[in-house]
Fold this sequence. Notes:
Elements: E1 4-7, H1 11-33, H2 38-61, H3 68-71, H4 75-82, H5 93-114, H6 132-165, H7 172-177, E2 179-182, H8 195-215
Helix pairs in contact: 1-2, 2-5, 2-8, 5-6
Amino acid sequence: MEKRRVKVWDVPTILFHWLLVLLTIAAFVTGFLGGSLIDTHGQIGLAIAGLLAFRLVWGVIGSTYVRFVQFVPGPARVIAYLRGQWHELGHNPLGAFSVLGLLTLMLFQVASGLVSDDNIAFTGPLKALVSQSTADRLTGLHLLNVWLIVGLVSLHTLSIIFYAVVKKNNLVSPMLTGHKTVDDPSLESARGGGWLPFVLAVLIAAGVVWAANGGLNPAPPPPPPQTAPAW
């Protein structure tokens, strides 16, 4: 069959993917080192919150293969994949579980970080919305969840290596170029997305970052009036 290049991933998805990789590494390093870097860690967390918000919106209004309705696997698709009968573009059913799992862990990591309190040098911008006991509990889970993320990212990386070495299927190249070479005439290039949906997704993500940074927090009470000392 004649080989041809088809579009799989749009530019916003590619940028999201690699920015999330870089920011996740930066968050891990700054969080592990702590100290004077803990404020930077918090700013990186806000950036990741914006990225995740963008991806959730883009998963609804983005191009074909980034939409959740297209790649979230059902039982029939999983069975077809395990039988070697799945020949579509985008995330395969098992890869889709990995993507959804990572998004879930990252969303929890961001949410717990926003209300965390290490009682030393860092207080999340939304800490005022929860009790101290809840903040302490979520801070502990925030620290533990790091290792779940590391484990899932490691499994994701090993899967990519397995596909490249054993199945001779390079999954990295399409995430760099956006295109994949195929010989199945039934496979079509991604459609949809575009500038208007992109702008909308960016605006929503910016709003989420503003809110996550305390934009909706109630104003602090005014300081008590100063009274002149009685002499």
